[in-house]
Amino acid sequence: MQVWGVVFHADSFTDNLFEQGLALVDGSSQARIKRFYRREDACRVLLGRLLPRVLLQKRGINLRDVVIGQTDAGKPFIISPILQDRIGFNISHDNSLIAMAYQIESEEKEPEADPLKIGIDIMKVALPRYEQSFETFVHNLGDTLTPLERRLLEDPSALLTEKLRRIYLMWTLKEAYTKAIGYGLGFAFNRIECNVLENTVLIDGAAPRGWEFVVFSVNVQGHEVDKQELYLGVVARFIGGDEVLRMAFRDHDEGSWFLQYDAPSIVRFALEGNN
Hints:
Layout: E1 2-7, H1 15-22, H2 27-34, H3 39-58, E2 67-70, E3 76-80, E4 85-94, E5 97-104, E6 118-124, H4 134-140, H5 147-153, H6 160-181, E7 192-195, E8 200-203, E9 211-221, E10 228-238, E11 248-249, E12 258-262, H7 263-274
Parallel strand pairs: 1-12, 9-11
Antiparallel strand pairs: 1-5, 2-3, 3-4, 4-5, 6-10, 7-8, 9-10
């Protein structure tokens, strides 16, 4: 499993780069991207469309030799006759960061591992600008939280920074898992319980076997000069086996599992592969 993080700043992503990147994606993607009112949102979605393309290029795979399949739930995946493998991938974006998690069938250790069951979600760790307070933030999440999760968020002994970490860990884990199984918002979030103190996960009251939840954080340069933004992310994936796993916390600087790029570089990589 590997994660790519792409740092996006609107002022360094020129209109020319946007148009060049847009020309590389299919017509339906172009139409969807053009419908966004805010340019920043269109750019983030475009970069998400380009990431699988760049992944294939870096592995020496010609796009003409690739088939995009879909699971029964409609989740896309890559089939490459060259690799003779299926490549599962998932995209997430928030503010200044776009991320892709992927895994390749032959690189999984357990024979029953499913490379298509992978999901990622990332979020900036900050109170949303439309929320008046942390309390209203929790209230507006409604019944997506379990009673235990709500108690952990209402803990009077926890500082605001810790409460924000907790709520985003809960939310990104729920998002990542539902994206991994291919249901997204069609799966009730209160069926998933994330105990951020014990680092355990329950699905419908039971510990999921064979699932790994990788938690990571990334600091990136924000839109404002000399201001860092903290992002929290979770990758959920089915690795097989009968083991019940706790959440695994990884440092993005350790090993080669996390690679970071800037947004203009992704467009340039995609253009190189189109020549």
